[in-house]
From TrEMBL, chain A:
Superkingdom of origin organism: Bacteria
One Pfam family this sequence matches: Fer2_2
Keywords: 2Fe-2S, Iron, Iron-sulfur, Metal-binding, Oxidoreductase
InterPro entries given in the database record: 2Fe-2S-bd (IPR002888), 2Fe-2S-bd_dom_sf (IPR036884), 2Fe-2S_ferredoxin-like_sf (IPR036010), 2Fe-2S_ferredoxin-type (IPR001041), 2Fe2S_fd_BS (IPR006058), Beta-grasp_dom_sf (IPR012675), Diverse_Oxidoreductases (IPR051452)
Lineage: Bacteria, Bacillati, Actinomycetota, Actinomycetes, Pseudonocardiales
Organism: Solihabitans fulvus
Domain spans labelled 2Fe-2S ferredoxin-type: 1-78
Name of the protein: (2Fe-2S)-binding protein
One MF annotation (Gene Ontology) recorded for this entry: oxidoreductase activity
Automatic annotation (TrEMBL), chain B:
Keywords: Molybdenum, Oxidoreductase
Pfam families given in the database record: Ald_Xan_dh_C, MoCoBD_1, MoCoBD_2
Family matches, as Gene3D superfamilies: Aldehyde oxidase/xanthine dehydrogenase, a/b hammerhead, Aldehyde oxidase/xanthine dehydrogenase, molybdopterin binding domain
Domain (Aldehyde oxidase/xanthine dehydrogenase a/b hammerhead) ranges: 19-126
GO molecular function list: iron ion binding; oxidoreductase activity
Keyword Oxidoreductase among record annotations: yes
Cross-referenced InterPro entries: Ald_Oxase/Xan_DH_a/b (IPR000674), Ald_Oxase/Xan_DH_a/b_sf (IPR036856), Ald_Oxase/xanthine_DH-like (IPR016208), AldOxase/xan_DH_MoCoBD1 (IPR008274), AldOxase/xan_DH_MoCoBD2 (IPR046867), AldOxase/xan_DH_Mopterin-bd_sf (IPR037165)
Protein name stated in the entry: Xanthine dehydrogenase family protein molybdopterin-binding subunit
Domain of life (superkingdom): Bacteria
Cited SUPFAM superfamilies: CO dehydrogenase molybdoprotein N-domain-like (SSF54665), Molybdenum cofactor-binding domain (SSF56003)
Length: 160, 722
């Protein structure tokens, strides 16, 4: 089947999509957007988290066909050119990135949290990121990054 | 100018990783790529009697189905290839999850559908998958990469006989899996007789070597690329069969083939930490002086390989004891070959550090004092000093920060409301290996430097730290330096495992950069247009991209000025073989235990290490934080369960295999002694694996302190505390 979908603001089209195919497969293998990672294929690790109509989803659990006519925003669509989103900048500066494989999903999940809860408590951060597994960092720096991003957004100057 | 080395600079690859721009093996875009998938065995021991691929071949889009009857013949590479056999070469099944067919199709779905339609019939034989299944079958394996499997020093029996107090106990831990977030991936692209492998590997050079052996082609016809790796933890350090098979089918089909292992396949395709059991007997005199350490272990080996990695070096390298006996037995089971997993020396240390805690209670002695009493920095094998080791300083740094002196040693004595609080500690120790490495540095006419080394960044920060090392040696700002890795066309380096990367590669990078700097200085003093013309080279220093005369800083030139007048880039190479060594530290842990539910939370952790000179306080600290959470998993949650009747792994996924999550992470403080190691040009020791090694014991010891229950079988799950 053919899927028409808006991805990171661009109208995109994928042909010969199989009915059982995941959004993640379509993004990675058909549309040249490999930023979202495939690590568990069953919604356990969060590495493929993307926005579907402004709701964060595991792209491995959403059928590509379900995205027909809808909007998807991936990790590739968070920055404005070289100008990183505050969440992205905070992840780099706080040292929340190691091997980087869980990072795309974590960045999207943290971005979503801060849109909903601009000044989250630590338990709120842990809860929001509970579905994102990381094997390198021990999570502490990821919490630091979210706190830093929240502070930056609260200061207003850097929020967008 | 404050040195760049040591500074907590952010990762230079951070931007690429937060934007989705970092390209991992499976992200590689190759026009016309086809998709491979593995069908794997459902029995653990026996032979394939028939294999019918008719239905699979008929699936639209299927290009080929290879079985042991049709697969191209491959050579089984010698060690360090860890498997002892190559699948799809005969009908024998050595373990569950062994590849029995390799399907290639136009899309992944087609390949997976076809793989599910292959009809395999087996003659199955009874399989043994647990140490308890094979009593009496343990044996002493031949010497491995780290030496003999038995070490005897003094007279251990007499030492135990003369002890004032003794502890004799058995400790055990289950199979663990590495579970890097990136599953292993291979994209094989042939162009004539040239192969390019986009590979998720901790060793591009080993991949090149082993694939060349398996395919019987010259090594220089293979190029391996790993610009980014999504974690490895040892699982991607060896070359496993899926890489060899993918390279072979791509050659056969003359098409690029991409294979990404599924999460479930990672549990049978890329090694694991073996089930481990150890009997530790320790004895001490009244004042706590150790009279004997006996550490006899038994661990799972496969039917096809008998190398042992869980080395017991800590039994003789940490504590000075006149009588030591360490022995590493193995037992062959019908499981995949185990291999090293982050901190392979951890298991042997875990039992020792738990036994020492038990001994401290027998003696009525503080566990830190017991360790300080017996600490040594002499290697009993040769009587030589073991590099620079500052375990006492680590114990003091971490113990003071933790507040250990306020501990009441009586079990169940510390409470907060209903919760029991426990404080435990352990020594941490891990060796690091030596590997030769070479690097190349070029200074271009625009004053920028490019450094290259065929090493890897497995997430630890090689890109960043080697950029710092290059910039410091050259006397350039970091943003004038670009460091590249992960390409076998670059000067070769060893694998990124065994805590070897920083201690090895920093030496060659430093040497190459210094040689390039000296070449530019030589050009400057010989150049009549340079303000430094005629100066003595040894009176010139480089900083911020400029060259100065030490005693007259008004006479200066720049890299850009010198090299642009020279008209072409200046390049140099450097090679280095690091000295292997031993890294120690200490961790102190607080747990809170709910006495009614048996639920354990690690709430506070303080650790200190002697890692030589700290290359980057941010990335070094990250190794501690990551290691600590690995220790939490080891002690409390991680357990690969294998059904003893079907010989299958019950939990080959991230919902059943409990990798610690965000809420499991304690507050962690990390300290470093930060004294340069004299054997390294930049003062670095190997470090990545020392954290973790003592943490499971420290947690277990803290749980004993909280509850009065000594749980010697890890992980310490709630049921064991009820």
């Amino acid at each position: 089947m053919r899927v028409n979908v808006t991805i990171n603001g661009d109208q995109r089209q994928a042909d010969d999509v199989w009915e059982g195919e995941s959004l993640l497969y379509m993004l990675r293998e058909r549309l040249g957007l490999p930023g979202s990672k495939n690590a568990c294929e069953q919604g356990e690790c969060g590495s493929c988290t993307v926005y579907l109509d402004d709701v964060p989803v595991c792209a491995c659990l959403v059928a590509a066909g379900q995205c027909q006519g809808r909007e998807v925003r991936t990790v590739e669509g968070l920055a404005a050119g070289d100008d990183l989103d505050p969440v992205q900048r905070s992840f780099v500066e706080a040292g929340a990135v190691q091997c980087g494989f869980c990072t795309p999903g974590l960045v999207v999940a943290a971005h979503d949290l801060l849109r909903r809860v601009p000044e989250p408590s630590d338990p709120e951060i842990r809860e929001a990121l509970a579905g994102n597994l990381c094997r390198c960092t021990g999570y502490e720096k990821i919490l630091d990054a979210v706190r830093l991003a929240a502070t930056r957004q609260a200061s207003g100057a850097e929020a967008r | 100018m404050s040195p760049l080395i040591g500074r907590a600079v952010p990762r230079v690859d951070g931007h690429a990783k937060v934007t989705g721009g970092a390209r991992y093996a499976a992200d590689t875009h190759v026009p016309g790529v086809t998709y491979g998938t593995l069908a794997t065995s459902t029995i653990a021991r026996g032979t394939i009697t028939t294999i019918d691929t008719t239905l699979a071949q008929a699936v639209p889009g299927v290009i080929a189905v290879f079985t042991h009857l049709t697969m191209p013949r491959l050579v089984t590479p010698p060690s360090p290839y860890p498997k002892g056999f190559v699948p799809l070469q005969d009908a024998t099944i050595h373990h569950n999850g062994q590849p029995v067919a390799y399907v290639v199709a136009q899309t992944l779905e087609q390949a997976q559908e076809a793989a599910a339609l292959i009809d395999v019939r087996y003659h199955a034989e009874p399989a043994k998958v647990a140490i308890d299944d094979a009593p009496g079958e343990e044996f002493l394996p031949p010497p491995g990469p780290e030496g003999p499997q038995e070490f005897v020093h003094g007279d251990p029996a007499a030492g135990l006989a003369n002890a004032h107090k003794k502890v004799d106990a058995t400790y055990s831990s289950p199979v663990h899996h590495h579970n890097p977030i990136e599953t292993s991936a291979t994209v094989a692209v042939w162009d004539g007789d040239q192969l390019t492998l986009h590979e998720s590997t901790q060793s591009i050079s080993l991949t090149q070597q082993i694939v060349a052996q398996a395919l019987s082609v010259p090594q220089n016809t293979i190029r391996v690329l790993t610009p980014f790796l999504g974690g490895g933890f040892g699982s991607k350090a060896p070359v496993w069969p899926h890489t060899l098979l993918t390279a072979a089918v791509a050659r056969q089909l003359r098409k690029p083939v991409k294979l990404v292992l599924t999460r479930a396949q990672m549990y049978t395709s890329s090694g694991h930490r073996a089930e481990f059991r150890q009997q530790v007997t320790v004895g001490a005199a009244k004042d706590g002086t150790l009279t004997a350490i006996v550490n006899i272990s038994n661990q799972q080996l496969s039917r096809t390989e008998q190398r042992v990695f869980n080395t017991s070096e800590s039994s003789w390298m940490v504590y000075g004891c006149p009588n030591i006996h360490a022995k590493q037995l193995g037992v062959r089971l019908d499981l995949p070959t185990p291999h090293f997993m982050r901190s392979p020396e951890g298991p042997a240390l875990v039992g020792l550090e738990m036994a020492l805690d038990e001994l401290s209670y027998e003696l009525g002695m503080d566990p830190v004092a017991l360790r300080l009493k017996n600490y040594t920095d002499l290697n009993p094998e040769n009587g030589q000093k073991i590099g620079n080791q500052n375990l006492p300083e680590c114990l003091k740094l971490a113990g003071d920060a933790f507040g250990w002196s306020r501990r009441n040693p009586t079990p169940r004595s510390m409470r907060d409301g209903n919760e029991l609080i426990g404080w435990g500690m352990a020594t941490e120790a891990h060796s690091y290996h030596a590997r030769a490495s070479s690097a190349w540095v070029q200074i271009d006419t625009d004053g920028h430097a490019l450094a290259r080394c065929g090493t890897q960044d497995i997430g630890t920060g090689t890109y960043t730290v080697m950029t710092q090392v290059t910039a410091e040696a050259l006397g350039m700002p970091m943003n004038s330096v670009r460091f590249e890795l992960g390409d076998t066309n670059f000067p070769a380096a060893g694998f990124s495992a065994a805590s070897v990367t920083v201690s090895s590669v920093s030496g060659s990078v430093d040497k190459a950069a210094r040689a390039a700097r000296d070449a530019v200085i030589a050009l400057a003093v010989a150049d009549p247009h340079s303000p430094l013309h005629g100066a003595a080279p040894d009176r010139i220093v480089t900083e911020h991209g400029f060259l100065f005369l030490t005693d007259d800083r008004t006479r200066r030139d720049s890299y850009q000025g010198v090299v642009s007048r020279h008209g072409k880039p200046v390049e140099a190479t450097g090679s280095f073989l690091n000295v292997p060594g031993y890294t120690t530290g200490a961790s102190f842990i607080e747990v809170r235990v709910d006495p009614w539910l048996g639920r354990v939370r690690v709430t506070r952790a303080v650790a200190a290490y002697d890692i030589g000179r700290v290359m980057n306080h941010r990335t070094a600290r990250s190794q501690v934080l990551g290691g600590m959470i690995w220790g939490v998993g080891y002690a409390l949650t991680e357990h690969t369960m294998i059904d003893r009747h079907t010989a299958r792994i019950v939990n080959p996924n991230l919902s059943g295999y409990l990798v610690p999550v965000n809420a499991d992470a304690p507050k962690i403080e990390a300290f470093f002694v930060d004294k340069p190691d004299p054997t390294s040009p930049v003062g670095a020791k190997g470090f990545g694996e020392a954290p973790i090694t003592g943490v499971p014991a420290a947690i277990s010891n803290a749980i004993y302190h909280a509850t009065g229950r000594r749980i010697r079988d890890l992980p310490i799950t709630q049921d064991k505390l009820l």
